[in-house]
Specification:
The complex is a heterodimer of chains A (64) and B (209).
Chain A: E1 2-3, E2 6-7, E3 14-15, H1 16-22, E4 30-34, E5 37-38, E6 48-49, E7 54-59
Parallel strand pairs in A: 1-7
Antiparallel strand pairs in A: 1-2, 3-6, 4-5, 4-7
Chain B: H1 5-16, H2 18-26, E1 28-32, H3 38-48, E2 52-56, H4 80-89, E3 96-100, H5 109-113, E4 118-121, H6 126-139, E5 144-148, E6 161-166, E7 169-173, H7 186-204
The chains are: A mainly beta (64), B alpha/beta (209).
């Protein structure tokens, strides 16, 4: 699977929310694009990731 | 009056041509957050010829804002929407502004942003940035959002980039410099604001594809 352009290995199928938690992302500070589509936060728990997926996670930091 | 509305328009036409001037003048841009990013973005957009702006911020001008935000000493205590409107009208008195002195929440997105073609995300909190970006992408399929993340500190200014993430989402900043851990400074914040304002102009003119 690709995460922000880098290859990562999924040892098993996992939900998007679990993957995000395991990789240190805070669900309320990110935007997620899976295979070109933005995934609403309400669907993070129901989307299942597979090894063929391309995931882009934008993590916002404070300032403005 | 120092100049008429027609004279302002003719100056824009002389600078960029009739077609470009027309596109800029008809564009509707929302600026969400009127702090270091938003006040600078709005100022540049007005100077560039944008006339229809939706300005959104719940807060008042504070003494601590003056070092990077487009407000003046005598405006301390004034609502940012009002103070910025006054400042922008000193540049072009003929701008058409919608002022929203309120906090943005997911429920309010339709009413606040319905009229905007392009939305500038200029909040300070990462949670608010995420809420607005996700909300615009989910609920407004025809609108574009130009967001910002990472412009604090005194690191290399060349790291303040403008990136197109997809057809409707652009992201400016260095992506990492967080104001919670590092202080913010006028020039570096304005670099990010300028990247956003420049992108808005390019999007209006169809230069971003």
């Amino acid at each position: 699977m690709k995460l922000n352009g880098e290859t990562v290995t999924l040892t098993e199928e996992t939900t998007l929310v679990s993957f995000l938690e395991n990789n240190g992302y805070s669900s309320n500070k990110i935007a997620v694009e899976l295979n070109g589509d933005i995934i609403p936060r309400s669907r993070y728990a129901s989307v299942i990731l597979t090894d063929a997926d391309k995931l882009e996670v934008v993590c916002f930091v404070g300032g403005g | 009056m120092l100049f008429t509305e027609e004279e302002w328009k003719q100056q824009l036409v002389a600078r960029c041509g009739e077609e470009v001037a027309s596109k800029i003048q008809q564009a509707q841009v929302a600026v969400a957050g009127l702090g270091g990013l938003g006040s600078n973005i709005a100022t540049m957009l007005v100077r560039m010829g944008v006339e229809h702006l939706i300005l959104i911020d719940f807060d008042r001008v504070d003494f601590s804002n003056l070092h990077r935000q487009q407000y003046f000493a005598e405006q301390i205590g004034v609502y940012k929407t009002e103070a910025l409107a006054e400042n922008l009208r000193c540049i072009n008195p003929y701008i058409k502004l919608k002022l929203c002195c309120e906090r943005v929440s997911e429920e309010k997105l339709p009413q606040l942003f319905a009229d905007a073609d392009i939305i500038c995300e200029a909040f300070d909190k990462p949670q608010a940035k995420a809420m607005l970006v996700n909300g615009v992408l989910e609920y407004f399929p025809g609108k574009v959002i130009v967001a910002a993340s990472g412009m604090a500190g005194l690191g290399d200014g060349n790291l303040i980039k403008a990136r197109k993430l997809n057809k409707r989402l652009y992201l400016c900043g260095d992506g990492v410099s967080d104001c919670e851990t590092t202080s913010v400074h006028a020039a570096r914040v304005t670099l990010c604001a300028a990247q956003q304002a420049h992108l808005v102009q390019r999007i209006i003119l169809g230069l971003e594809g």
